[in-house]
Amino acid sequence: MRVYRPESGRLVQREEPVPEPQRGEVLVRVRAVSLNYRDLLILDGDHFAGGAGALVPASDAAGEVVAVGDGVTRFAVGDRVINTFHPDWIAGRMPDTAVGYGNGQDGWLQEFRAVGEHALVALPDSLTFEQGATVPCAAVTAWTSLDRVGPGDVVLTLGTGGVSLFAVQLAKTRGARVVATTSSAAKAAKLARLGADTVIDYVATPEWGKAVLDATGGRGADRIVEVGGPGTFAQSLVAAGTHHAEIAVVGFVGRSGPPIDFMDLFRSGATVRKIWVGSREDTEDLLRWLTVWPVEPVIDSVHSFEDAGEAFRRFAGRENFGKVVITTA
Ligand SMILES: NC(=O)c1ccc[n+]([C@@H]2O[C@H](COP(=O)([O-])OP(=O)(O)OC[C@H]3O[C@@H](n4cnc5c(N)ncnc54)[C@H](OP(=O)(O)O)[C@@H]3O)[C@@H](O)[C@H]2O)c1
């Protein structure tokens, strides 16, 4: 089978034997893989949870079951599946032992992968393999970030990365009003078409936290899907107002910025909740929600397996609006 592994800082395609599923495992023929910010950091050796070494990259895949090991009961040959982001987090609190794909064990940028049956969920017929591959990290993270958001709540999303676009779409299915930020007029127009009610250009308006207050009659956002970290958190605190909003701390794409003023946090009354993607139960809840409130994942481009290098370049260059997907075709 074809597989990609990092070698001296670049991805190299190799031939390796197709794995045999062991007891409790299924063999998945990978059909599509999607890229996430973490995949770039891991390859660059810049991820807080460790670098790639020679591990196969990518945390998110969709495919079909082509063989099952002894004792497998959840899946049969022919089933369409996606993986869960944390293979061993079924429900409840995240276990201390969670091991990531691509930096703790081989990821999914390969034609076949044997994996414990507990680490997969069924892919609904309503989603293609390419769409399914966008779910495990970005969509589930948006879903858990929006936990308990209800009609009339104001949700603030930052930028147009994978998590943020799903957050816009899922927030609308919950009846929320969406205020979104981005860095260009072209992306602002796309966000509006996706359902964002108010879009703020964070480059033209560096004090965008105040713009969120202005857009909400001075009240601010109820839920902030905070993907920018050091580069955005201070403004997010302004956007939170003082009415006990919740800030879902997701990421750090804005790599540096002003220090956070403790008194600003104190005055806001905001609850700060760290997100760790989500469990298998969260993934299943999301997929069930999508059968009632369908959302079409925004896919920027689909690349062939041979073209994986180009897919990584496009994603790293931030040329994309929506997920960058690689198929095994
Ligand atoms: N904690 C978790 O469970 C979890 C799960 C998933 C992801 N993450 C983290 O969340 C972050 C987003 O991941 P992703 O995969 O969605 O990223 P991504 O697709 O690579 O997002 C890239 C986008 O981020 C936006 N951006 C960059 N700097 C920004 C800034 N200063 N303000 C606002 N937006 C900015 C840009 O949007 P515009 O082009 O519109 O400006 C850019 O297109 C990453 O840090 C990732 O590691 C964490």
Automatic annotation (TrEMBL):
<dbReference type="InterPro" id="IPR013154">
    <property type="entry name" value="ADH-like_N"/>
</dbReference>
<feature type="domain" description="Enoyl reductase (ER)">
    <location>
        <begin position="9"/>
        <end position="326"/>
    </location>
</feature>
<dbReference type="InterPro" id="IPR020843">
    <property type="entry name" value="ER"/>
</dbReference>
<dbReference type="InterPro" id="IPR013149">
    <property type="entry name" value="ADH-like_C"/>
</dbReference>
<dbReference type="InterPro" id="IPR011032">
    <property type="entry name" value="GroES-like_sf"/>
</dbReference>
<dbReference type="InterPro" id="IPR052711">
    <property type="entry name" value="Zinc_ADH-like"/>
</dbReference>
<dbReference type="InterPro" id="IPR036291">
    <property type="entry name" value="NAD(P)-bd_dom_sf"/>
</dbReference>
<dbReference type="Pfam" id="PF08240">
    <property type="entry name" value="ADH_N"/>
</dbReference>
<dbReference type="GO" id="GO:0016491">
    <property type="term" value="F:oxidoreductase activity"/>
</dbReference>
<dbReference type="Pfam" id="PF00107">
    <property type="entry name" value="ADH_zinc_N"/>
</dbReference>
<protein>
    <submittedName>
        <fullName>NADPH:quinone reductase</fullName>
    </submittedName>
</protein>
